[in-house]
Amino acid sequence: MTEASLPFNERYYPSIAKFSNGEIRKQESEKALKNPQEYWAEKAKAIDWYKPFSKALDDSNPPFYKWFPDGELNICYNAIDRHIKGPRKNKLAYIWEGEMGEVKTYTYYQLYREVNKLAKALKNLGVQKGDRVAVFLPVIPELPITLLATARIGGIHTVVFSGFSAEALADRVNDCGAKVLVTADGSFRRGKPVAIKDNADRAAPIMPNIEKVLVVKRTGQPVQMKEGRDIWYHEALANAGANVYVEPESMKSTDPLFILYTSGTTGKPKGVQHGIGGYLVWAYWTLKWAFNPTDEDIYWCVADIGWITGHTYNVYAPLSHGMTAFLFEGTPDYPGQDRWWQMIETHGVTILYGTPTAVRMFMKFGEALVLKHDLSSLRILGSVGEPINPEAWKWYYRVIGKERLPIIDTWWQTETGGFMISPASGIELTPLKPGSATLPLPSVNVDIFDEKGQSVPQGTKGVLVIKSPWPGMLQQIWKDPERFKQTYFGRWPGIYFSGDYAVRDPDGYFWLLGRSDEVLKVAGHRIGTVELESALVSHPAVSEAAVMGKEDAVKGEVPVAFVVLRSGFTPSDELRAELIKLVRTAIGPIATPDAVVFVNKMPKTRSGKIMRRLLKAVLTGAPLGDTSTIEDEGSIEDIKATYAELQKQIGSK
Ligand code: WTA
Q1: Which of 261, 263, 355, 384 gets mutated to test ligand 1 (max ligand atoms within 8 A of its CB)?
Q2: Does any ligand 1 atom lie closer than 6 A to the CB of residue 526?
Q3: I want to staple 168 with a disulfide (CB 3.0 to 4.6 A). Which of 102, 164, 284, 526 is the partner?
Q4: How confident is the model over 100-150, as pLDDT tens digits?
Q5: Which of 105-119, 367-381, 462-476, 617-631 shows the lowest per-residue confidence on average (mean pLDDT)?
Q6: Ligand 1 centroid – CA 413 distance (Å)
Q7: Helix (H) or strand (E) holding 168
Q8: Strands 72-73 and 251-252
C-alpha cells in the first residue's frame, strides 16, 4: 500500500456514538504539555499511593525522566487489594478458557488468595526486593498470577514468550540475571500437548544464575524434575499455607517493575525496562481514554502475555480499573475456525482488542462463520501490532462491528508502555478513517521528521518522533543506559525516535506506514532481521546472510533470507531445510523464514555494506533505482545479473 492510495478522505461515524473532532483531547494535551506537573499530579490520583509524591516529573537529567519520583506504591495492591476492600471483591477479575474448552474463573478475592500464596512461595525460594523472576509460561491463569505475586514482593519480572527457543530463553534470562524461573510442563495447541519444560531444561545448563525452577502442571505430560532445583508450583503453594497474607512491599515509583526483551536493529534483543508509578498511571489512563471501561464489560485482549500488549492490557490496565478480563489459551482457528466468535458469544465479550493478522485470517475463512454467532454483546473493536490495511479495517467494521462499533486502532510500542496514537471512546468519540490510528492521546507530543530532523508538511512521509516525555515511557535498557540514550535519543537529542514511518493527512490524522529500520512485524511479532542473520551465519556453510521482509496477505510481512555460501558448499533443498531449522532452534517458530534464496554474491556499496534497498527492490519487484554507490563500477553488470537471477528464484518459490 502506498501513501498515495490511502483513503485520506473517507470518514466513518459508527452508529453507536456522538462524535467530536478531537477538540477535547487537544485541550487536554495542551494542559498536559504546558504544565505536566499539575496535569499528571491530578491524573495520578486515580492510583492508590502509600506515600504521596511531591512532584509529578523530574526532568533534570533527560532522557532519564523520573515520574512521581518520591512517591511510593505497590502495583499489585492497585490491581487487586484495593478492589477487595469494596464492592468489586466478588466480581470476576479473570475468565480463562483453555484450549480443551475448559473454563476457570477468578474473582478479585480468589485472585488475591492465589497471588498471596505464590508471593509467599517465591519468598520461600529466596526471592527478595529487586530480584529478577523469569517467566516462561503459556497463557494460563498462573501467568498473570506470577506477575502480580512478583510485583507484590518487589521483584522484577521478565516474561519470555513461551514459543521462544531454549537459546532465546537463555539469552534473555542471562542478560537480566534472574535467579528463579517459573515455567510449565507444557501447553495445549491444536488439541495436542506441546512441551515447554523441555526447552527450559535445554536452556538450564547455560543459565548459571537460575537456582530454582517452579513448574506448573498444565498438561500432565511426563517431565524430568531435577532434585534440588525443580519444584512443582502446586506443591510450593500448598507449602505456603492456605490463607497466607503477604504485605505488599512499598516500592519507589521509579523502581523497575519489569524487563521485557524486544528486537531492535543491532545486536541482541534489548531489555526494555519499565518502572512502576509512571507505567501504571499511563496504563490506567490510556485504557480509560481509548476503551472507556465500565463494570459491565467483559474485556478481551487477544495478545499473549509474553508481549507488551499482554502485560499492559491483559494485566495491569484492566485490573487497575477493576474490570473483568477474558484470557484464552491456544490458537484462533482450533477447534474451529470460529473459535473467537464462539468465545465472544459464550462469555458475552463486550470489548474485543484484536490484531490485523487475525482479521485478515478470518476474512479468508469467510463471513458465514461469523454470521453463525450472536456477537451483539460487543461494543468496541480494537486493533494493535501492525498497520491495519483499509480492506481489513472495513471488513472488521462491517462484518464484526455491523457498522455500529468503533474500531480503536492503537499505535504504540514495547517502549511506550501503552497507547500513544488511537481513536478515543472515553474522552470523546473520534470520527474514524479506515487504516488510520487517528490522533495522539493527551500529552503525546508526536511529530513526523525528515532525515534532517525537520518537521515534514502534511502528506509527506517521514519518521514518527515524540517530542516530550510521557509517564509510560521506558526508563532505560536494562543495565545499559548508554544504549538506551543512543537508540532512542541519539539521532536528535531530546527527541524520541520511534523507528516507524508515518504520514499526516490534511485533518491531522496519523497513518502508520511500517518500520523504517531492519525490524520486521511478522503477524504482529517484532523480529529483528539481525537476529535471523546471526543465526544463519552461525551455520558452517554460510558466509553472508541478509534478511528482508516480504509483504504477505495474512501476516503483513514474512522474512526472506538471502544467503551466500562458503566455497565448497553448494545450494540444495536439504541445506535450505537445515537453515530454516536452525533459525527455529535459535529463535523460535515465529521467526521461520518464508524462503531461503541462495545467491552468489551480495550487492554491496563501495564501503562494503550490503545494499538492502536493492534486495528489497527485488522482493517488491520495484525498479532497481540508483546504483551509483555500488562497490565498483565493474560490478554493475554483475549486480544486474544477480538481480535478474534473484527475481527468477523468488518467482519460482
Ligand atoms: C507496530 C506492540 C501500525 C509499529 C504494541 C511499532 C503498529 C511496533 C501498530 C511495536 C498500529 C504497533 N499501527 N503499526 N496500530 N501497533 N505497531 O514493541 O511498527 O511489539 O513500532 O509493540 O509495532 O511493536 P511492539
Answers
A1: 384
A2: yes
A3: 164
A4: 889 999 999 999 999 999 999 999 999 999 999 999 999 999 999 999 999
A5: 617-631
A6: 5
A7: helix 166-176
A8: antiparallel
